[in-house]
Write a structure and sequence with these properties.
By secondary structure, the protein is mainly alpha-helical. The protein is built from four helices and three strands. The chain starts with 5 loop residues before the first helix and ends with a helix.
Length: 194
């Protein structure tokens, strides 16, 4: 994928932001809640963020775990519940931007490596094209040879059949079944057909 095309860059950016929000902030954030502390300066400025985990077992075999984020104001000590959606959006966007930077640098690195290897690849492609042209020419020469062989075979068959006709004509003349004029006329006709 060419990273210099704006549409590719935009699609990569949108994908990285989406993955930052859904996979990293929400997905990994459920397993490792502390990774969402990156959003603290935006959702809890001047305070402390903490998470409370509650585990419920409404009936046997079922466990429900909830995470509730709080922002505690350092000056007043007031504890306020935070919106998980807002926190996930902000933390996910930050992780998405980091992911985009990593992907962009990786794509640029692979692009330069591919570009340097491209010179050898172009030579190989040129060699393949030349080889294909040689094979095409050899095939054409073979077809011409085969056509010549078919023509030679036809001539040989025609001459074999002409020889048989000449023998038959001579036998007819020797048996006085045709006149000398008829013999010469038929003989010249057979020789013309060769």
């Amino acid at each position: 994928m060419d990273i210099n095309k704006p549409i590719n860059l935009l699609m990569t950016f949108v994908f990285c932001i989406f993955m930052g929000i859904t996979a990293i902030s929400i997905g990994f954030g459920a397993l490792f809640p502390s990774i969402n502390l990156i959003a603290k300066p935006f959702v809890c400025p001047g305070g402390e963020m903490d998470v409370v985990q509650q585990v419920y077992r409404p009936y046997p075999g079922t466990t429900i775990t909830t995470l509730t984020w709080y922002c505690t104001n350092a000056a007043s000590g007031e504890r306020k519940e935070m919106s998980i959606l807002l926190m996930s959006l902000i933390a996910g966007t930050i992780y998405g931007l980091l992911l985009f930077a990593v992907v962009y640098v990786g794509m640029a690195f692979l692009g330069t490596r591919r570009g340097s290897a491209g010179a050898g690849t172009n030579d190989q492609v040129q060699q393949l094209v030349e080889r294909a042209e040689q094979i095409r020419k050899q095939t054409e020469d073979f077809r011409e040879s085969a056509s010549g062989l078919r023509e030679s075979k036809k001539k040989i068959q025609a001459s074999g059949s002409a020889l048989a006709k000449m023998k038959e004509l001579k036998e007819l003349r020797d048996a006085n079944m045709i006149s000398e004029a008829e013999y010469e006329k038929k003989r010249s006709k057979i020789l013309e057909d060769l």
